[in-house]
Structures are given as structure tokens and as C-alpha cells.
Design brief:
Elements lengths: L9 E4 L5 E3 L6 H12 L4 E5 L5 H12 L3 E6 L2 E5 L13 E2 L4 H11 L5 E5 L10 H10 L2 E5 L3 E7 L8 E3 L5 H11 L5 E6 L6 H8 L4 E6 L2 E7 L8 E3 L4 H13 L4 E8 L6 H8 L3 E10 L2 E9 L7 E2 L11 H8 L3 E7 L11 H11 L3 E5 L2 E7 L9 E2 L5 H10 L7 E3 L12 H7 L3 E4 L3
Parallel strand pairs: 2-15, 3-14, 6-7, 10-11, 18-19, 22-23
Antiparallel strand pairs: 1-23, 1-24, 3-5, 4-5, 7-9, 8-9, 11-13, 12-13, 15-17, 16-17, 19-21, 20-21
The structure holds shikimate-3-phosphate (S3P) and phosphoenolpyruvate (PEP).
């Protein structure tokens, strides 16, 4: 039975200024894709900088279950000997994707057009998340899904025996849905087309091209039109995974709010489909210098020099949501310390993440003494500015790594410490979070109030 272990409470206390270099681990999105595309390729894929978080380890295990050879050579250094497009074997057991929406949705896409069946499950968080958004378009290829009420996991997917290509207009701005459709399109004859009204992270498109697929992207009045030619031969590649901007967000935000801090976070993605948080922070008055712009692992990156800053509340436009979707929790934490109100619009997708992140942030911030308003698609945080945030609460994280890390960042400046009831999910995306933050001088430790 999938689950997670005993809860690990963690506490953050006010302390010294943060300083030093924060080398965050590899990008989670790119790590999943490197393993999956490696498994769908002919020959060997060599990956360096792979994120060894639980989400990605679960995807590595799944790729083995579908017939690929996946081996760890050293820290972050992995090889995948793939089976080629259409070469997936039927797994002998249930595929457990743990806490990972990206893992389960991309893998469902990758197997949906092969003549095999697979059953998927996950932990208590993943089993609550909607899968219909992926199984609906996969049904157009000819795959059939039988899950729990609302299409929830555990779910069995019967792969299409005679797949047909699909044209699909995304009803939600989701890179996971887009990617599932494109991965399914690999083993359908002819052209599969995905149209997205709002640009979401584009790693699948970039990496599919890198592995040899014929794929074009066109900006049209309808949105971004992505056309993939089916049945390509993908060939194994060397993939150097760049650092994860969504993990970088935590030390960056911590340095902005802890007085006297100055840190450097090297190699942070400047991919416009991922950098909305940094744009927002600069608008709030953050002192962030973007140094040494360059390319790493096919992504534009820069070194971020971040200094403690007085921040003001702003309106974050709905159009920016997709480019910072995983960063709203930590932005909400930072906004509670700003002078004035921060309004985050177009954020309803936060309600179907590892937890309902609007609700989790609102309840946690209120417990810390912050006034918050929420609507279905909007989160408003009334910043306390110079008055500071009282803290002194134990916050419920609902098996959500980003909620845990956001409140541990906030606790570095609150009058009284902030504890989280369970920090163990941090290992899904940022296993070295605690060590990295302590290395910068932060007072975070296991324990509670
Ligand atoms: O494709 C991806 O790697 C991801 C897409 C986003 O999810 P949605 O596609 O549900 O927006 C994001 O929240 C997730 O952390 C990673
Ligand atoms: C939403 C996230 O991940 P996933 O959807 O892959 O579980 C995240 O990492 O914030």
C-alpha cells in the first residue's frame, strides 16, 4: 500500500543573516522527462545532475517496470538503456508514483498508445488528485481508463491497440496534460497536435526535439500550437539537468526576508515558462542581480545574487500564473512580510496540487497572525510590513513539500518560531533543503513548538 512514513515535525526560528552560496539540486520536471524519454529511446541516455528526490526515484523505478534498464552510477549520475518508442513491456505489478503528479501523468501518457495495461497508484495526496484531465485526452487515442470516482487513483489504463493521432486543445493550463498527450502521440501514426492558450513549461517540447522527434511550435491567435510527428526513432542522449528554479525559490525568498542577508544561487533557470516568481519579486522591490547569463543543459540560466530587501505588496497578474505555479506558496509567505497587500489572481490550479495550496497557505498564515482573503481563483495576503509576523504556530502541511518549505522560510523571521507538522514530503523535491538552509546560517531543525 502506497503511503508515506511517520511524520517528521520541523521548526524554524529567527536567527542570523543568511550568507553563502546555495547550490540547489537538479530540476524535477527535467529529471522526470530525462528518465522517461531515455526509456522511450533506442540506445543509452546518460544523465548528470538528476534530482534524487523521491518523486524522480519513483519514476526511475516505473521506467524499469516498463522494461528499460535504469542504473545509478553515482550522485546524480544515471544511465537509461531504452526500449524505443512503442517498446514498453507490460509491468508485472502496480506502478506506485508516490507523491508525484508529474510522474503518474507523464507515464500514463507514455504507455497509453502501447498494447499493454498498467495499474497506477500513489500516496494519500496523489490519490486525491484529478486524473480525468489526462485520461480524457488519452481516450481520444483509444486508451481506456478505469479508476475510482472522479477518475482518481488507483486507476488501470488499457493502452490503445490501434492508436490514432489526436488534436487536443488544453482545457486547463497544464504542462503535465500537454506532456501526457505529446508522449502518447509518439506511438500514434501521423501528427498529434496540442494547442495551449497559455504557455506552460516547455521542457517536453525542448527535450523531445533533443531526442530526435520532429516537433514544431507555432504561436497563433488560438495559442501555442505544438505539432508532433508520430513514430519517430528517439535516440539516447546526454542530458545535463540544470538546477531547479522552483527549489531555488526557497533560499532566494529566505534571503530577501532575513535582515542583513546576501546569498548567491547559481544556475537558476531564466526560461520564461519558469521564471514568473523572479519577475514578481523584482516588482515587489527585491534586490536580485542576474549575473553571468548563459546556457546550461539547454536552458537559459543566470546566477542570482540576492540581498535582504524591503518589499511592497503588488498585484500578480493571472497571465503569469503558469510561469510560477509552484512558487505561489512561498510568495504568499514573503507577501505576509511586505508593506501592503499582494493579490494573486488566476491561481485556481493551486487547489489540485499535492494539497489545496490556497487553503493550506491561508490557514497556515492565519495561524501565524496574518490576514488573508481567498476566492476560488484568488489569494490575497495583507502584508504586515514593519509590524512583522507573530508566528508561534504549528502549521498543517497536508503531505505537501512546498507548504512545508514555505512555512519553514517564514519562521526564519517571525517573532515566535513556526513549526510544520510534517516535513518528510520535502524529500520528494528537495531532499537537501534542511542542510542547504543550515549551510546558509538558517535555524531550521527537526522538532516542534
Ligand atoms: O510538467 C511538469 O513537470 C509540472 C507541471 C506543473 O503541473 P501542472 O501541469 O498540473 O500545472 C507543476 O505544478 C508541476 O510541479 C510540474
Ligand atoms: C505540483 C508539484 O508536483 P507534482 O504535480 O509533480 O506532484 C510540485 O512539485 O509543486
Amino acid at each position: 500500500m502506497s503511503g508515506h512514513g511517520d511524520p517528521v515535525p520541523m521548526i524554524a526560528r529567527k536567527g542570523a543573516a543568511l550568507c553563502g552560496v546555495a547550490e540547489v539540486p537538479g530540476d524535477k520536471s527535467i529529471s522526470h522527462r530525462a528518465l522517461i524519454l531515455g526509456a522511450l529511446s533506442v540506445g543509452r541516455t546518460e544523465i548528470t545532475g538528476l534530482l534524487e528526490g523521491q518523486d524522480v526515484l519513483d519514476t526511475a523505478k516505473a521506467m524499469q517496470a516498463f522494461g528499460a534498464t535504469v542504473e545509478r552510477l553515482g550522485p546524480g549520475h544515471w544511465i537509461v538503456d531504452g526500449v524505443g518508442v512503442g517498446g514498453f513491456a507490460e509491468p508485472a505489478d502496480v506502478i506506485d508514483c508516490g507523491n508525484s503528479g508529474t510522474g503518474v501523468r507523464l507515464i500514463m501518457g507514455a504507455m497509453a498508445t502501447s498494447p499493454i495495461n498498467a495499474t497506477f497508484t500513489g500516496d494519500a495526496s496523489l490519490r486525491k488528485r484529478p486524473m480525468g484531465r489526462v485520461t480524457d485526452p488519452l481516450a481520444l487515442f483509444g486508451a481506456q481508463a478505469v479508476g475510482r470516482e472522479g477518475g482518481r487513483l488507483p486507476l488501470t489504463l488499457v493502452g490503445a491497440r490501434n492508436p490514432v493521432p489526436v488534436r487536443y486543445v488544453l482545457p486547463v493550463p497544464s504542462a503535465q496534460v500537454k506532456s501526457a498527450v505529446l508522449l502518447a502521440g509518439l506511438n500514434a501514426p501521423g501528427q498529434t497536435v496540442v494547442v495551449e492558450a497559455e504557455a506552460t513549461r516547455d521542457h517536453t517540447e525542448r527535450m523531445l526535439k533533443g531526442f530526435g522527434a520532429e516537433l514544431s511550435v507555432e504561436d497563433t491567435p488560438e495559442g501555442r500550437v505544438i505539432t508532433l510527428q508520430g513514430r519517430p526513432e528517439l535516440t539516447g542522449q546526454s542530458v545535463a539537468v540544470p538546477r531547479d528554479p522552483s527549489s531555488a525559490a526557497f533560499p532566494v525568498c529566505a534571503a530577501l526576508i532575513v535582515p542583513g542577508s546576501e546569498i548567491v544561487v547559481p544556475g537558476v533557470s531564466q526560461n520564461p515558462t519558469r521564471n514568473g516568481l523572479f519577475t514578481t519579486l523584482v516588482e515587489m522591490g527585491a534586490d536580485i542581480a542576474f549575473e553571468n547569463p548563459r546556457e546550461e543543459g539547454g536552458e537559459p540560466v543566470a546566477d542570482l545574487r540576492v540581498r535582504h530587501s524591503a518589499l511592497k505588496g503588488i498585484e500578480v497578474p493571472a497571465e503569469r500564473a503558469a510561469s510560477m505555479i509552484d512558487e505561489y506558496p512561498v510568495l504568499a509567505a514573503v507577501a505576509s512580510l511586505a508593506e501592503g497587500t499582494t493579490v494573486m489572481r488566476g491561481v485556481k490550479e493551486l487547489r489540485v496540487k499535492e494539497s489545496d495550496r490556497i487553503d493550506a497557505m491561508a490557514r497556515g498564515l492565519e495561524a501565524c497572525g496574518v490576514t488573508v482573503e481567498e476566492e476560488r481563483d484568488v489569494l490575497v495576503v495583507h502584508g504586515r510590513g514593519a509590524a512583522g509576523v507573530p508566528g508561534g504556530a504549528i502549521v498543517a502541511t497536508h503531505i505537501d513539500h512546498r507548504i512545508a518549505m514555505s512555512f519553514l522560510v517564514l519562521g526564519l523571521v517571525t517573532d515566535r518560531p513556526v513549526a510544520v507538522d510534517d516535513a518528510s514530503p520535502i524529500a520528494t523535491s528537495f531532499p537537501v533543503f534542511g542542510d542547504l538552509m543550515r549551510g546558509l546560517g538558517a535555524d531550521v531543525a527537526e522538532g516542534s513548538l
